[in-house]
Amino acid sequence: MGWASPAVLPIVLLVASNLFMTVAWYGHLKHPTAPLWSVVLVSWGIAFVEYCLAVPANRVGHQVYSAAELKTIQEVITLVVFAVFSVVYLGERFTLSHLVGFGFIGLGAFFVFKSPLG
Question: What digits encode the pLDDT tens for the residues 17-28?
Answer without folding.
Answer: 999 999 999 999
